[in-house]
Structure formats: C-alpha cells, structure tokens
Amino acid sequence: MVTIRNLQKSYGHFRVLDGLDMNVPDGEIYGFLGKNGCGKTTTMNILCNVIAKDGGDVILGDENSGEEKRIKIGYLPETPSMFNFMNGYEYLRYIAACCKYEGNVEARVEEVLDIVGMREGGKRRIKGYSRGMNQRMGIAAIIFDSPQVLVLDEPTSALDPEGRADVMNIIRNVSQIGATIILCTHILSDVEKVAGSVGIMRNGKMAIEGKISDILMNYAKQEIEVKLYETDEKSISAIKGLENSSLIEKVDYYEKTGFFVIRTPEPKTASQLLIKTFEENSVVPSQFRTVTESLEEIYLKVVNGNA
Fold first, then answer.
1. pLDDT tens, 207-231?
2. Under 8 Å CB-to-CB from 130, ≥6 apart: which residues?
3. Which residue has the higher pLDDT, 257 or 92?
4. pLDDT, tens digit (0-9, with 9 covering 90-100), for 7-32
5. Run of H or E residues at 176
6. From the DSSP assignment, how many helices (H) and strands (E) are in the chain?
7. Cβ neighbourhood burial of 125 (10 Å; 0-12, 13-18, 19+)
8. How, if at all, do strands 29-33 and 180-184 pair?
9. Main-chain phi, psi angles of 252, to 5 degrees
10. CA distance 115 to 130
11. Among candidates 152, 185, 192, 186, which has minimal Cα distance to 170?
C-alpha cells in the first residue's frame, strides 16, 4: 500500500533522511519505530504531503499497476488540535464539511462515534475531554471519510494503561475494517500486540524491516536456561560438552546460581538434544525453559548499532 524508495530530506546541512526505503503491506498495521531524531516525523510529514521531499519516490497503492492512484490518508498527530467550544457531534459535522462528505452525514457521525466508543462522550464539549477522549475523537475525525491509509503518531502517549488498551483496541478494530495503519510509537509492547510488520529506523535509513515473526526469528537471541537438582563435575562436563554440537553456540555455567545458559539458533531441536543428554547421564533438571528476546530488546540493539 505504501512504498518508499531512496527518500531524502535535508534541513540546511543536516541530512534527516538519507535514502530511506520502506514497504507497508496493504491492510496491515505497520509499527514505525526508531529513536527521536532518526527521521520518523519527517517521513510521516512527507507521506502526508505536509512537507516536500528532496529526492526519492513515495508510491501509494500497487507500485506494479503502473497507474497513479488517489489514496486518502488520515493523519493523527501526537497531540490532536480541535475546536474546544464544539462538542464531538459538532466537530465531526465540521470534518464532514471539510472533506465534502457525500454520504449521510448524521449516519456517518453516529457510526464513527460508535467505532471509537464516544456516542455519549460526543455530547460533551471538547474543552472538557480527557487525554484519552481527545485521542478517540482524533481517530474519529481521521477515519470519517474512510481513508485507505492512517498515520498515527504516538496515539497512546501519556495515557494510563486502561486508556492505552482502549485506544489499541480501536486501532485493531479500524484495521479489521480495511485500513492500512502506520503506527509510530515508543511503546513496543503495543506494537507486538497489534502489528504484523515493523520497520526500525536508524540515522535516516531503514535498519531492519519485515514481519514481526521473521524479525524475532532472525534477530532474537534465543537461550535455554537449565538448573539441575544436583550438580557435580560429571553433569557439568556433560552439558558443557554440548558446545561441540552444531545446534549449540555457547554454554555458560554460573556456579553461584547453579544455572546453565545455553545459546542456540534452534531451541526446539536443542531442547531435544538436552533431554537426550539428561537421560544418558542420569541428570535431573529442576528448571528448564526457553528464553527469547522481545521486540523491545531487538529494537534497543538495532537503534544503538549492535544488530
């Protein structure tokens, strides 16, 4: 749905975007990640036609179709700005007028207020809205004219856990009715819950991008932690001897805690090898678990240049 090729943007002598490539699959929630200052906001502003690019291509729709397509984009900034003297119903009627909505305005107002859970809240003046209500109304405004692409900049920032969960449920529901969503956030646990793909920027370029499942498989450090009921030289030697196997990258033994930490690219097969080793050496484990790095841990490695 959104394809970016070699995107470039400079402010004076400072190059913000240095040949950014980005691919957002149609109908997915795409987690757009990176440190502050890496170029995410500039990318979103170019995508939404707020600022001009210096070079590169931004393609909306199917880049293989050979046709220029008019794609509607809805953009929600981190802090939505609305007319505080209006109530929610009045504000959405104003949005309908701005986008020259051709359908039944009153029916659409009711529909989008239902989607964001603001049927009752819409009767109140925006001036009295909480941060969470503001975010809900902001989402209602940007989905009003059914855009194909939504760009959301930190939609759950400064919300309490309940408010965050509510907004993420709304985002998930909006995605299910057909929108492609670019979700820019620093809350990576939210991304893991709803996104299918992610892109992590570093220094104006895309560092890694792809399906979350593929990124976890290719970049996540995977370890098996083992603790034995009884530890002696024979059992230590048997487990450390697994380093000679192609399935095991490294075996560390921490004498103080009694834990073995076994690094492996294939934890399922390596676990079977461990069980066989236990049986052959009459070793009984008291703890046995596989530990995989989270998306947040991979993110920290990537943005700091360690992956």
1. 999 999 888 888 877 889 999 988 8
2. 163
3. 92
4. 999 999 999 999 999 999 999 999 99
5. helix 161-176
6. 10, 13
7. middle
8. parallel
9. -110, 135
10. 18
11. 152
